[in-house]
Design brief:
The complex is a heterodimer. By secondary structure, chain A is of the alpha/beta class. Chain A has a single domain, classed as Spore Coat Polysaccharide Biosynthesis Protein SpsA, Chain A (Alpha-Beta Complex), CATH 3.90.550. Chain A contains eight helices and 14 strands. In chain A, the strands form three sheets. In chain A, strands 3-2-1-6-9-8-10-14-7 form a nine-stranded mixed beta sheet, sandwiched between helices. Chain A starts with 13 loop residues before the first strand and ends with a helix. By secondary structure, chain B is an alpha/beta fold. Chain B contains twelve helices and twelve strands. The chains are: A alpha/beta, B alpha/beta. At the A-B interface, loops of A face β11 of B.
């Protein structure tokens, strides 16, 4: 029965939840603002921000939720520092019944995520990733399990979803133990790995691959010179390569580009198109 | 060769266990029988042994072996790889319907519902195999001979048969290939240098001659097992898989690298089956 027939049942609230914690090098909140603008324009859904006390932002967020995050990661020469801890708080902090958690560097350009919300599930995580031109390890270690991408997680407020986030919290708290048990390559905390482990545990020690988001994410991991929109095609230029793809969601990891004027122009163009 | 009193039960599992100088197959059959009794209580189990192995069957083995069948003649007496008796299973099985398995394979959950699927054919060979992640393996590292000769990708690790003209013909062809292996290898197979006939190759060739459609069901893609040969799992050959990743027993379940093995597990590396695991099975079955 839908809410049009039953006045006691209210429409479920839906929205995006972004986590953004600034570092000395990178204004993640500014990146999140562009991401939020695009997500709302594309889907019509509100966006809430989780950040720390004292963060300045002029963007008209649906909610700004403050939560302390002490975890810091460093990778010299590439991404600089980043602060990715506390993603497990999403379940507790979200103001929505149905939440799409995305990384601030994920551009919502098509309506596929919205379509996915029409299906029945507790949670869905991005399982597969295409990284054109990049050679990323797609397993946690030399003999590690293939991992999911916590870049996009969709969940409803159900007992199973709650268990997922509780497990992620446990993995983060005991990361050194799980790092050894799961043969992880890196020492830095990665949400991707924590969600992989929680997902495996929660589903009876199974990869649960058929319950993931049923398409591949498209990630550009290199340094981006420009991204332009022409006739429903995205032209993505790197230093020595270029890609032309249909207008679709993309995950752009180059923080320099995300903070550039070109990025802002692209979002302007996508929002006005 | 068929005896009138051959069939004593409707259905059951059967393996051949012929101990060699390097391998105690009887011990593996014992673990296999226990895994079957644990996951599919009431299932019957038969083991085919040669004279020498028969002398090693203990009372505790007989608690899970419903039938111990001794080979009259051992066609593999002079072979280190003892495969030449495989075609005889059709004449030795005490079951009207048999799931024949290799002895280094254990069951982690019931496959009782597979019987229904198997009955769609007179004989069913499993097609393809899985890695420990439960994914269908795409590796062709151990299957070059099959690809070179365009043989069907069948695995003898687990098969089904019942007595019908089709299965009789299957085993008749297989017998001819086993008994004339050197000639067939040198004249009819490309790039084959196996000194002894391996059952996978012989049955693949048999399936090709008989007609793949008669003895495989590729659309039933759950009828296969996890194969722990290193390259199927993208592991290095030099290190046994159980030394490379965590292997945890929570019987009847076995967890490899934190992944439950829901499909039958062909553990391949014989050293994985430790005395502790045997004791765990015995404890679970009060043996």
């Amino acid at each position: 029965m839908t809410n049009t027939n039953n006045l006691n049942v209210s429409e479920k609230s839906k929205g995006f939840l972004l986590f953004a914690y600034n570092t000395a090098e990178t204004d993640y909140v500014k990146i999140a603002e562009q991401c939020a603008r695009l997500a709302t324009y594309t889907t019509g859904l509100p966006v809430s921000l989780v950040t720390e006390e004292g963060t300045q932002t002029d963007y008209p967020w649906d909610n700004v939720i403050t939560k302390e995050n002490k975890l810091k990661n460093y990778k010299v020469g590439e991404l600089g520092a980043w602060r990715n801890g506390g993603r497990y708080n999403a379940y507790e902090l979200t103001p929505y019944d149905e939440t799409i958690v995305i990384d601030a560097d994920y551009f919502v350009i098509d309506k596929n995520l919205l379509k996915l919300l029409e299906q029945d599930f507790d949670y869905r995580i991005m399982q597969k990733n295409n990284l054109p031109g990049s050679h990323w390890n797609l397993s946690m270690g030399m003999v590690g399990l293939p991992y999911v991408w916590a870049t996009v997680i969709i969940f409803r407020k159900t007992a199973k979803s709650e268990m997922l986030f509780d497990l992620v919290k446990r993995v983060q708290r005991n990361y050194d133990y799980y790092r050894r048990l799961y043969h992880m390559r890196e020492g830095n905390f990665r949400n991707d790995y924590a969600f992989t482990i929680a997902n495996v545990l929660l589903n009876g020690y199974d990869l649960n691959e058929d319950q993931g988001i049923p398409w591949n994410m498209l990630t550009f991991a290199g340094v981006i010179s420009s991204i332009e929109l022409h006739n429903n095609l995205l032209k993505i230029r790197e230093d020595k390569k270029a890609y032309v793809i249909p207008k679709q969601d993309i995950h752009v990891m180059d923080k320099g580009f995300l903070l550039s004027k070109n990025c802002q122009q692209l979002v302007d163009q996508l929002c006005d198109a | 060769m068929r005896r009138l009193d051959q069939y004593q039960s409707q259905q059951g599992f059967l393996t051949i266990a012929q101990n060699s100088s390097e391998c105690d197959y009887l011990r593996m059959a014992y673990a296999q029988a226990m895994s079957i009794k644990l996951t599919m209580p009431g299932s019957l189990y038969a083991v085919v042994v040669d004279k020498s192995t028969a002398g090693q069957v203990l009372d505790k083995h007989r608690q899970v072996f419903d039938h111990v069948i001794e080979l009259d003649e051992d066609a593999s007496a002079n072979d280190e790889w003892k495969f030449r008796n495989e075609w005889k299973v059709q004449y030795l099985t005490p079951f009207k319907e048999t799931i024949k398995v290799e002895s280094d394979l254990i069951f982690t959950r019931s496959i009782a519902h597979w019987w229904t699927a198997f009955r769609l054919r007179d004989i069913v060979l499993s097609v393809g195999c899985r890695d420990y992640l439960q994914r269908k393996s795409l590796s062709r590292d151990y299957r070059k001979l099959f690809d070179d000769n365009q043989l069907p990708d069948v695995y003898n690790g687990l098969m089904y048969f019942r007595y019908t003209p089709t299965s009789a013909e299957f085993f008749w062809i297989a017998r001819i290939i086993f008994q004339n292996w050197e000639h067939i290898r040198d004249n009819h197979l490309l790039n084959c240098r196996d000194p002894y006939p391996t059952t996978d190759v012989v049955y693949a060739l048999t399936a090709k001659l008989l007609g793949e459609e008669q003895c495989t069901m590729p659309s039933m893609d759950f009828i296969n097992f996890v194969h722990m040969k290193p390259k199927i799992n993208k592991f290095r050959e030099q290190i046994p898989w159980h030394e490379l990743v965590v292997a945890e027993t929570d019987l009847p379940m076995v967890r490899i690298n934190n992944i439950n093995q829901y499909h039958p597990l062909h553990y391949y590396s014989k050293d994985w089956l430790t005395d502790d695991i045997i004791k765990e099975y015995e404890h679970a079955l009060s043996i």
